[in-house]
């Protein structure tokens, strides 16, 4: 037995069962519930009301199973001997439990004159000495029953009355789950008879041992696939699709789920054991009416009993299908609303000339969502054939984008409830605020409460996100959400656990565990581990080789990614692009062959002659049945006729090269993802991208980089309609000694990529601040010189005319402005230079951020404008040319300031301080440098032109 497998045995106790006087209803219920939570029920036994027989049976069952659940034999009569038998099985004595004594005395009072010992109910207060008491609570919070369920070691003792057993088990079923393993189950329908399916079924049973159940002999054979490994379920489904003709295999979808729900509710209503608990009685009348109407879909159309508004149906009357959309983030409220909408849509008659369109749902994605939540969204999309529209948040931006891409949408269903923290003065139909995208908000669950949502989901056995079974009562992002502390408990081994959300007692604490905003500044370290897309969701994975100082190392999990790829390779078509020395393809194909897995095709493409071992790796690939192609353009895969129907496409270390080509690397990924869409088999095909640690832009990257210094893989994938499914580390094996090392070392030189570049970045930005501002300081210092007559080789000029009219040549007052005259930073000349510099600079700062120009070209523009401005001033023969040079310099300086300050967002915050320090240094250095050059008898022109070297330094 798998050491991690949770097993259970059920022991039914009672002479009435063995004599056929009573039909047992508890074992079938426990079988179904244990199966649903992933517990393997290994045995069901029935014994008489005999202490020795019960004890003997319990000894073996408790020793060989994780849990034992008993039913019956609890009560005050002579044949209620289960407690005594359990004590004997574990060699324990019976003791009177004070808490149970108090409960029994309160519920079964005796006349005051009678002794307490004379009360027959006191028999139920005597329990084994190691007994633990588990009190029951309903999903709506109030204490359900004062009588607890007793456990002793791994034996749980339930009453024999079906109603009480069901209530007790539903309260405590979280105790029987393995919290470290998640159970997956998927039903498929095969349009063949059971007999015709036998040959293929036998092959599947042999290959996927223990994972295939069924078949159920219904018109379409139904098979259940179950495993603790979700990939195994996918492989089994794919196996049946490949072995059987097209169109015969399908997932159990909307119709089947709702039909099953109707059937289950019929049994709940029509059997005495199925009376709804008190907190759900408000649902009973409308459920009964729906069942009497004999329409399976009406079973789900249950609205809050105090409301006369059948909001979903009313909205379907008002709006067309294409005008409606559901806001769906995978939470409990919108999940409940989804099922109501699906049922209502099924009941409506669609005219013959109108197509019954898929239900539109929009998922507005915040930063750092839970992988489990996004997996549930994707599974729900597939289960019900939803038209999933995925937008980036925040909500306002997401809605704006929604109306841009889907302008026909006029109304959006919301899962808002009045007991949510923020809704105030809202009604079922309400327009968004005037400053928001204009949509009609349809609040169909407005009158529902927390316990109504859970009663609906649980009683109808509808799917919901697994996070709610792990103590989460309100789910936001993985950064701001934790399990609700009020649900915390310690299991028998002392480990901290959390009860499921439906057991929350205090409604007011529903959002306990939620903390902080959903969205944050774009410069926050982005953690888009699971990126969403704008319609059809394909799947993309990212693996990150772990490299330290350019050399690879191995860890215990080295084989994980390789193993997963190998395990899923059966019958698949593989395409690898971007290979350097073909080492990745060689390793993967060798492992596939070693495992004996038969793939359909394996094509590797790259560049010939790359690395010393290239030819050797190519030989390995061809020897194992692979095909090698050279010079394949990964951004134009559709140009190759043979590239069709791939199940897995791997882009191995996509890289353009260069120190400042992040935009080009992102564009390369974007072009590849757009291109790869045309060569994949279907929406379930996998795209794998291998990147160096730190490049991807997720919180799993090692080392971490700022968001703007990564390739932003999640955002790029999102723009190409892909869903980032998972991020895993993959470590280089010995055969992969080359191929990407040059790229890794080159990427390490990207500014700000690692902490080792910190000093270089600080110094670099100090120099940029100095060089960008120093020419301006020099021109201000030399203002009188460059506007004086000697600058143009003139001897006399009217100073008043120069600074009052700027065009007059009338000599009102002669001033000696020869090279030997004393220089002053005259306020008038300085003011003119400032005026000419300020206006163009302000205009540049106003419009520069709107220009879609990369930082590389901005730097080139800064250098050219500053250099040309200085040259123009140096060669000027009149004031117009001087002013033109000043304008060019002003534009260049302003462009540099905006560009470099914006660029600091990609680096540590310390570089902003170093930039400021550099600008301050330019003031001192510029003034003294110009004065020093003039003291060396250099003319003002020569002194100015010397500084042309300053902007040229920035290009380096």
Stretches where pLDDT falls below 50 for ≥5 residues? 139-143, 266-286, 288-299, 302-309, 516-559, 734-756, 794-825
Domain count: 5
Largest sheet, strands/sense/barrel? 7 strands, parallel
Helix vs. strand class:
alpha/beta
In order across it, which strands form the biggest sheet? 26-25-24-27-28-21-29
Overall mean pLDDT = 71
Give the radius of gyration. 38 Å
CATH superfamily of the largest domain: HUPs
Q: Tell the overall outline.
A: elongated
CATH architecture of the largest domain: 3-Layer(aba) Sandwich
The helical percent reads 25-40%
Count of β-strands: 29
The CATH class of the largest domain, by name, is: Alpha Beta
The number of helical elements comes to 30
| Quaternary state of the chains | single chain
**Which fold name corresponds to the CATH topology of the largest domain?**
Rossmann fold
Instruction: Tell me the β content.
Output: 15-25%
Q: Could you give the distance between the termini? A: 66 Å
Protein name: FAD synthase
GO cellular component, one term: endomembrane system
Pathway: Cofactor biosynthesis; FAD biosynthesis; FAD from FMN: step 1/1
Enzyme class: transferase
